[in-house]
Each structure stands twice: as structure tokens, then as C-alpha cells.
Amino acid sequence: MKIISFIIYSFLLLFLSYVFANKALDISAFQSNIFKTGLYSVSITKILSYFVLLVESIGIILLIVNKKAGLLYTLIMLIIFTIYISFLNFTSRYEVCGCGGVLNGLSYMAHFIINICLIILSFISLIYYNKFSNEKY
């Protein structure tokens, strides 16, 4: 089970890094997707886009330097983001996923399913990390 936890942890770290890099490398497209929701002004959109990048970078750093804190942070971040995209969907403001890369353009349902899977994986990894906390990965 320890190897499964390590694989999940590694996948989460790579996935978050991939999504972060895509948003950071094409920040204008990311900002455009945020602006399209109609919830934010241009100035708030710019601030929010950098805030999201900061939040994601903290998650990546925590996963590297403190696995337990990183896994918990990632779990909470994914839950909050899933609630946010669900709010956008239920208020008819969700158009397509703006995460970038291969995820760009996902429908709400596809994005929701991916997020639920990531939440489950984060939870499983956190449980196994707690179980094997006295051992090194």
C-alpha cells in the first residue's frame, strides 16, 4: 500500500505542477477564462489570476517540503475549487475549463469528474500517509 500512496502523491504533484505551468505560461488565456464568468472586473480578474497561481504554487511547495501538509492543503484546495466550478455551472457561468494544456476546454461534467477523482486520490494518499507517517516514502 505504501507504493500506491507514493504513486498517488507523485501523480498529484505532477498534475498540480502541469496545471500551474499551463496557467502561468499563458496567463492571458487564464485571465480571459476567469473574466468570461462575468463575476469579476478586469482589474479583479488580474489579481485573482495571480492569487490562484500563488495558491497553487503553495500547494506544490508544500507537497515537496511537507507531504502531509501538502496533501491536506491540496485536498482542501480541490474541494473549494470544485465548489466554485459547481457554482459557476449552476449559475450558467461555466463555459469550459481554463486550466490549460490537455484540460483546456473540458465540459463542466468532465471537469467535475476529474476533480472528484483528484479529491478521492488526495484523501486516499492522506490516509496512507498518516498510516505510514513514521516511514519515509
UniProtKB/TrEMBL annotation:
Domain spans labelled Methylamine utilisation protein MauE: 1-127
Any coiled-coil regions, as ranges: none
One BP term from GO: methylamine metabolic process
GO cellular component, one term: membrane
Localization of this protein: Membrane
Residues spanning the membrane: 47-65, 70-88, 108-129
Entry annotated with the keyword Transmembrane helix: yes
Cited InterPro entries: Methylamine_util_MauE
Keyword Membrane listed: yes
Pfam family, one: MauE
Membrane topology annotation: Multi-pass membrane protein
Protein name per UniProt: Methylamine utilisation protein MauE domain-containing protein
